[in-house]
Amino acid sequence: MTEIGNIYYLMNDPRAEKSFLQAFEIKKNETSLFKAFILFELIHFYLRTEQLDKVDAYLKEMRFLARELETLSVNASLDYLLGFNDMLQQNFSYAIKYLQSSLEQAHLSKNSDLILSNNILLAAIHLQRYRINEKDEELNNALNYLETAIKLAEEFDHVQVLAIGLVIRAYLNASKGEFSKAFDDLEQIKEISDRMDFEQWKQEYQTVVDLVVKGEKEGKLKVQEETIFKYILPQIKSMLSFKLPERKHRKSIVLGLLVINDSGIPVFTKLSKNLETDKLILSGLITAISHFSESIISGKDKGRLREILYEGIWLTTQPVKNGLVVVIAEEATAEIRIWASSIANRIKEVPAIVEMKNELTIDIDDILKQMNFS
Which of 144, 241, 253, 361 is the most exposed place for a label (fewest CB within 10 A)? Predict the structure, then answer.
């Protein structure tokens, strides 16, 4: 019944709420994972439709289930719902903490749908914060999370999520003056349009195309409050209703981790044997990262998570205060992006005065274990 409810929601059919409530009624006297799943879908529906007056009682029930069941998946789901609720009430700082906690737990439990949803909501929060303070770093954070969602959609071959992600990214790139990137995204949507229900979504797509074309002619595209609330956030909510198809988990092979200061000096280095044996590659990596970091630690790309292909290996870089986190891997996957972001969120900053101890003051052993790199 919950799947039917989600279909009704996407169709804007009033029978959606009834479907979720009927499913909950069947399981309401249980203390089970299945009840937690149904309760999650019901609360998620109320949050997506912003019926916040109906949320608190069910969130209380979800908290009780989380305490009783003591499972990673339910705890991750609860933190996600709490973060979503705080976002809708404009409590952005609390929302970010809950969603980042949910993202870490979802990654541990390999819940791809929840990983996707957390990245989407974190993008939405930073976009709304950018609307308020117009800081480039907020816009770049929004793009970081959105691009992880796009990469997940590509890896799972989910064209609807991919198309919506691309159209939002096109608008955001255009707002940074990167119109060629925006048009590349819009062209990619046209290329996959025959694999999705494009007619139903054509009007929203054309609206963003018109905005980008107009922005290019005028030489700028300002992120407008009306555009965010009328076009962008509704599209984000529709992304939250899709489920990723089942697939065999693709292992991401990590070759190294570097934390460097903004002068390019490594303060923490952990490398696989393959990289340790090739000092020239390592030297070249650090030099390349050092030069690259200058453009993403400051300026309009401040805060951007970037991926660099160097000598056949990928460097996924995430800025922190006074420095940069770099995950070196065979591929640039969504999972690698999540690890880079998780480490950056944990570290937060690199000490201004470097002591050559090759150790961090913040414990990241649990993340290294996830990476099979402990």
Answer: 361
